[in-house]
Backbone:
């Protein structure tokens, strides 16, 4: 997940890629769906669910937390 460069991808693209990568890596007992036309909130829901239900490695946790922090900043500016 280190290949997700913040300067090249939008927050929505990074969230989608992170969610997609993690869904492929971990079992999906919650039957979470991620479609190509999914929005930021869909990706966010998946990331939060995986963060709290799977034993993620440190790099994966940091990637998710970074996305969540950036979303909070954007939400605070609205």
Residues:
């Amino acid at each position: 997940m280190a290949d997700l460069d913040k300067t090249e991808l939008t927050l929505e693209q990074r969230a989608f890629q992170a969610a997609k990568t993690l869904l492929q890596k971990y079992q999906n007992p919650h039957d979470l769906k991620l479609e190509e036309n999914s929005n930021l909130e869909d990706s966010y829901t998946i990331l939060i669910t995986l963060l709290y239900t799977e034993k993620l490695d440190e790099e994966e946790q940091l990637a998710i937390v970074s996305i969540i922090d950036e979303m909070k900043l954007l939400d605070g500016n609205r």
Observations:
- The two ends are 29 Å apart (CA to CA).
